[in-house]
Amino acid sequence: MQPSALEIASSQAADRRRYQRVEVNLLGRFMLPNWQEYPCQVIDMSPGGAGIVSPVTGNIGDRVVAYIDHIGRVEGTIARHISGGFAMTIKASAHKRDKLASQLTYLANKEILDLPEDRRHERQPVENPYSRITMSDGRHYQCVVLDISLSGAAVRTTVRPAINSMVQLGNMRARVVRHLDDGIALEFAVVQKDGDTSAAFVS
Hints:
alpha+beta, elongated
């Protein structure tokens, strides 16, 4: 049974009292009860809710399952419509909310301090470094992966996409975080699991 408008408004007010939203700029996709997936951009987020910009807004009270870059899977309900999208509440366990708070703190500090890509993971050379970069408009270029970690890679290439633009390295979505002398540094949209990184970037 879907929550009533009063229950949604009450939950949203409680969320605002409990959590402070952080301005973010994260891409992702979400699914509505009709099982259709839609692209979206998350513009602010807290462990209890998120502001979503999307061409499809759904109905207040609809269940939403979203897959957000750097965050992962979250689910909740549409609480209200906003300009160009909707605000959703996030249904999560206490452990999941703590993890979300840590992720958002990192993202907020990263924006404020202009930190480089996540270096929590050790960079390693690769045995077969030849891959392909695909731009958002579909153009693609051959490249050489200089080193790679679970969260990013350095790539030798003749093209220089703008900082913060999204590209695809092999099968992995990534964001351009820095220009190098002979290429670019990328941060993967999703941190990879041990053992699957090399296979993922081979085009």
